[in-house]
Amino acid sequence: MKKLIVLAIIVSAVACSKPQKKVLVYAKGTATVNETTKTITANDGAGSDEKTLLLNDAEKTSINIATTNGKATIEIPTNGYYVVNAKQDTIVGSYQVYGAAKTTTTVITQAFLKQSIDSLEQLIQGKNISAANRNFFILPMTAVKVTNNLDAYIVGPFHQVTSLEKVDGKQPEVYRFYSVKEIRETIAKLTALTIAEKQ
Question: By C-alpha distance, which of 150, 162, 119 is closest to 52?
Answer without folding.
Answer: 150
